[in-house]
Amino acid sequence: MRTQVAIIGGGPSGLLLSQLLHTKGIASVVLERRSRDYVLSRIRAGILETGFVNLMREAGVAERMDRESYVHDGTVISYGNEEFEIDFKALTGTSVIVYGQTEVTRDLYDAAEADEGRVITEVSGVMPHDLETDAPYVTFMKDGKVIRLDCDYVAGCDGFHGVSRQQIPEDKRREFEKTYPFGWLGVLSETPPVHDELIYANSERGFALCSMRHANLSRYYVQCPLADKPEDWSDERFWQELKRRIPAHHAENLVTGPSIEKSIAPLRSFVCEPMRWGRLFLCGDAAHIVPPTGAKGLNTAASDVHYLYHGLVQFYEEKDNEGLDRYSEKALARIWKAERFSWWMTTLLHRFPDQTDFDLRIQRADLEFLRSNEAAQRVLAENYVGLPY
Ligand code: FAD
Ligand code: DHB
């Protein structure tokens, strides 16, 4: 088999890149080890920046998103019973939308289906080869057969645990990591959202987030110890804990119901440098992870896709390598700013086991400064709606 761009991983990064290339007549094949249904069952991000929305439009897959998503012009931040609003629209002139990662992925799979063979699911043993030559290839197994896919370039879009990043020799790769001593327990429930905006809550009992997917589908999170398992959290225990972490008048309005999904995710900051090795380009979680506070995970994946897509188009249409040669530098410059923002939002809003009374006073001062200072609010808003590409 031969294609122009072999894409490892059929999550949002790989599928979006493939779809964008398709609009320019550049051929790609996406290799995904799971089934489509498995990928679509993963409940993850919910907030999309304008940059992401524009890429979906450019890729020609925005019709349902434009119809069904909700525009959010601001967010609430609370600490104890105190709360204030950050008005993105007034501060930056722009907003974010609520549209689940599951829906993004579904739209991209549906679009790819019209083009048979572009996405190959349930493959195993995916391995890129000869990345430092101008004739790289990828081998994989499908239905018991080993297949070789020759290509010009390989996009490593296979998430944090994928094989792509490992292809950069250890002495050429630098990894920066910070882990956090807690996780997020997430619950999805078919209940109306507690408020029409998101609520990011700092409380004595730990962080909580009230989010949503639509008018009758809510997504809530509470900070929990890393050792906890979803089975430790009955629905009753979850709702009680959430109510204790958000301002009382919101807790009174909270409509509870059975959870339809419950999972725990650890929090991590991680960056791999460089993001390019020979003919391999890393995109999304394969190269970097942010803690979810601030909703940057999926959005940073999209900015990588933007830079790589434009670099590839420049190469195929103009025979110019400039965009590809500068890919790692451009992507990382934006990634590190999202890493800083996500780390800061996490630090501002969570309870850390080793926090001293001094640390707690500093955290409160940070919140009160944010509440009263428009410049500080603008910094948050500009980062939240997404820095320019
Ligand atoms: P992924 O979505 O991880 O996709 C990678 C794909 O590659 C997967 O489909 C995987 O099956 C496939 N793959 C892996 N290895 C191989 C291989 N060897 N061969 C072939 N295929 C392979 N972000 C937010 O903004 N908000 C959130 O609330 C949020 N919650 C999250 C919860 C969890 C549990 C996780 C893990 C992430 C969360 N994120 C969240 C982050 C966000 O979901 C990711 O940033 C986003 O999924 C990145 O997309 P991606 O395509 O780069 O990687
Ligand atoms: C969601 C997740 C986030 O990490 C976030 O900051 C906002 C919303 C969500 O899943 O809806």
UniProtKB/TrEMBL annotation:
Gene3D superfamilies per UniProt: D-Amino Acid Oxidase, subunit A, domain 2, FAD/NAD(P)-binding domain
Biological process according to GO: benzoate catabolic process
Superkingdom, taxonomy of origin: Bacteria
One Gene Ontology term of the molecular function aspect: 4-hydroxybenzoate 3-monooxygenase activity
Record's keyword terms, sorted: FAD, Flavoprotein, Monooxygenase, Oxidoreductase
Residues covered by the FAD-binding domain: 2-342
Protein name: p-hydroxybenzoate 3-monooxygenase
